[in-house]
Amino acid sequence: MSGVRRVIAGVSGSPGSLRALRFAASLARVHDAALVPVLAWLPPGGDFADRSHPSPVLRKVWKDAAWRRLWSAIELALGSVPDDLTVQPAVLRGEPGLVLTGAASQPGDVLVIGAGRRGAGRLVASRSSRYCLAHAHCPVLAVPPPALARIGNGPRGWMFRHRRLDPELAALRAD
Fold it and tell me: Among 20, 43, 62, 146, which lies 20 to 30 A Cα-Cα from 175?
């Protein structure tokens, strides 16, 4: 991939998107490109609910919450905003797939997304990543989720998702 000018990373705060953001940062370093973490947001209840009962105050609250979520994801994935990269974070309103493909529309763009969950829930969970892979006009890299995020999948995955963490129990099972 020569001529990479911007690396756009889809960020939601999920483990898969944090891994994709880390990968996007390393790709931006290799190509001396700008890193553009993008978080797409919709009002609770969707656009229809917002259009039927518009509130500028609530829109500002929702957008501020989206910015906090983006900064939190950047801190979780990278520790802080990297000094060695040009970082241009963006919070855009809309469906994630549409927002990301629209943001990655310039020549020299590369879109990095999380590949979504695997297993029975993947049909709903990876709708945005499938949309980006099908409709983007630039190279798209789909980063698989980390192994720890996959631990709750499978026929007995509900046991891990519905139990609290207990260090003593974990130590007993490790023996």
Answer: 146
Q: Over the stretch 86-111, which tens digit does the pLDDT of each residue have?
A: 999 999 999 999 999 999 999 999 99
Answer whether 135's CB lies under 8 Å from 11's CB: no
CB 60 within 8 A of CB 8: no
Which pTM value belongs to this model? 0.78
Q: Which of 134, 105, 129, 113 is nearest to 27 (CA)?
A: 113
CA distance 125 to 119: 10
**62 within domain boundaries:** yes
Q: Is 43:98 a contact under the CB 8 Å cutoff? A: no
135 lies in some domain: yes
Are residues 8 and 112 in contact, defined by beta-carbon separation less than 8 angstroms? yes
Q: Where are the alpha helices (DSSP H) in 38-166?
A: 46-52, 56-78, 96-103, 122-125, 127-135, 157-161
HSE-CB at 38 with a 13 A cutoff on CA atoms is 26
**Could you please report the per-residue DSSP string of 13-70?**
SSHHHHHHHHHHHHHHHHHT-EEEEEEEE--TTHHHHHHHS--HHHHHHHHHHHHHHH
Distance, in Å, from the CA atom of 72 to the CA atom of 38, rounded to the nearest integer, reads: 13
CATH of the domain at 33: 3.40.50.620
